Amino acid sequence: MSQPHHPSASYAGLRWSGWTDGGRFRPNNEDAFLGVCFDSREIHHLGKFGHAPAQGMDFAFAVSDGLGGARAGEYASRIAVEKIALLLPRSFRQSAVGLEAGFTEVLEELFDQIHRALALLGSSYPECAGMEATLSLCWFTPRWLYFGHIGDSRIYYLPAGQKTIKQLSQDDTHVGWLLRQGRINEREARSHPRRNLLQKALGGANQFVDPQAGAVDCQAGDLFLLCTDGLVEGLYDHDLIELMRAPASDGSEAGPARCLVEASQAKGARDNVTALVIEVV
Q1: pLDDT-based confidence at residue 170 (cuts at 50, 70, 90)
Q2: Domains in the chain, start-ordered, CATH in brackets?
Q3: Angle, to 10 degrees, between the axis of helix 72-87 and the axis of helix 103-124?
Q4: Coil, strand or helix: which one is 260?
Q5: What is the C-alpha separation between 263 and 266, in angstroms, rounded?
Q6: N or C, which end of the chain is more exposed by having fewer CB within 10 Å?
């Protein structure tokens, strides 16, 4: 990925909402999500919903879906998102002046360190044996969004004024590969018996980490959705577009993310369901 120069911010700020629900069919919620803003000196954790100006701070949002026996999956997803808050701000000072190594290298190092932490815990404690996690991360700098991804959680991009949503992340599953190759369609992918078998994840017995990384030139009005795979069990692209742009029925700021989660569950989602919606304003 080429290294864009940091221009002055092309948008005023961000508005976000996040929601997670364990659902009625799982004993615990193995999903986790995170929102933080930071500079080279300090970091602030964001609430489930809110808005903030883009003045001298970077923002990071992430979702993770944990896997493992007992409560190992729950621990794995929490560790994955908490590590972001510890590791990412260290790169802020470099990114503010144009990171020499490139953002791809920063994200690869971040994912590698989370992977090593999960693998170490998994090999050290019986209750953590086999713990793995997906991770989808969006890092908002002035103008540019950088994203990193591994697993089958997803990052969607809905450009301002457009009617077509784009999945930025690639599902690290065989079924995801079949879909990208045009060998099956969206409906076939949703009912495929191997749709939940991961080819890549953080932790576990995976020896190498090779996350997907990319960049988007942000503009006011753009919308981004980060979600775990449970969200799209019952929702199609047109549902995502409608719900991401719809105001909350009760007027609360938590609207878009909560509406997505509840709509997915109403259409039969059986997994944990998590959504984060970020609007560039």
Answers
A1: very high
A2: 13-280 (3.60.40.10)
A3: 140
A4: helix
A5: 5
A6: N
